[in-house]
Amino acid sequence: MPSPPKNSGRPVIEIEDLCFSYGGKKVLHHIDLVIRERDFTAVVGPNGGGKTTLLKLILGLLKPARGVIRINGVPLRSPWSAGAGNTGIGYVPQQIDHNLSFPATALDVVLMGKHNPKRRFFSRNTDQDKKDAHQALERMNIAGLARRRITDLSGGQRQRVLIARALVTDPELLVLDEPTASIDTRGQIEFYHMLQELNDSLTILMVSHDLLTVASYAKSIACVNRRLHCHRMFQDSMELLSAFYSCSVEDVCPVEAVSRHLRAMPRPLFSGAPVSPRTAPAGEEPRA
Question: Measured between alpha carbons, how far is 73 from 199 in angstroms, rounded to an integer?
């Protein structure tokens, strides 16, 4: 497969020869990837393909069996090295824990983003912390929800609160794990438009199961199914998509619908800085 055109932007994430296994079973196999500043990269793939594992490795929550991950040029060596206070990562999980034993407000949740391993968890929030939290809520257009209990908010509102929490430390990279799972269709459209606005000043990396939707908003696609395939845009290829989802074109498979939809999509939807697979050294065959 030809490599996407190179982007001259500074590398934010660099992954070299990354391998990971669970109980002896290979989950990720020789992954090479570079994501550059101001990219909006969606990581897609079948269930069990390794996309969430890749995200956890980038966050420093798992230790690779082999390979190197660098965030802003700094190698990850421990879970703490991926903290927002160190490498400029803001993390947005799928949802807030609904089993909170205290009546947390939206402002309380955003202020949690100010706590990191170098700071005592029960230390008091400063006036600057509170100012930053209110500014993050304003940035998400939910300043009026600051005193509302998080459990009383809609799925879309909760996700905005989580993004505000991620933004409160002024990160350079925003990482999201299937952020639209609890949002209705209309809310998802608004959510993706909001991400596009954030992408003007942030690099975005997002794991998603929704191939059709991310194809309309992301600039670059990283397809993960144990191995990695990088695309600036989806190709009109049944063979490519069916190989990605490990099923044949004759099977009853969502890939067929996906391919038909992608053929009809206007190309400008995919304009922007591409994900760049690392170039193999001279004399070495590039890995799939």
Answer: 21
C-alpha span between 45 and 84 (Å, rounded): 26
Write the CA distances from 94 to 73, 98, 118, 179, integer angstroms: 27, 12, 25, 5
Task: Please give the model's pTM, rounded to 2 decimal places.
Answer: 0.76
Written as six digits, the tokens of 276 are 């760049």
What three-state secondary structure class fits 180? coil
* Phi and psi angles of residue 9, each rounded to the nearest 5 degrees, phi first: -65, 160
Q: Could you give the CA distance from residue 8 to residue 22 in angstroms, rounded to a whole number?
A: 36
Write out pLDDT tens, residues 132-143. Answer: 999 999 999 999
- 251, β-bridge pairs: none
Q: Which residue has the tokens 């995200």?
A: 55
Residue ranges per domain, the chain?
Answer: 9-88+173-288, 97-170
The DSSP result for 90-152, as a single string, is: EEE-SS--TT-SS--BHHHHHHHTT--TTS-TTPPPPHHHHHHHHHHHHHTT-GGGTTSBGGG
List CB contacts of 7: < 8 A, sequence separation 6 or more. 36, 39, 273, 274, 276
**Contact (Cβ atoms closer than 8 angstroms) between residue 46 and residue 246:** yes
The partner residues of 36 in beta bridges, in order of sequence, read 11
pLDDT tens digits, residue range 18-76?
999 998 899 999 999 999 999 999 998 888 889 999 999 999 889 999 999 999 898 88
Q: Any idea which architecture 9-88+173-288 has in CATH?
A: 3-Layer(aba) Sandwich (3.40)
**Please, are residues 12 and 58 in contact by the beta-carbon 8 Å criterion?**
no
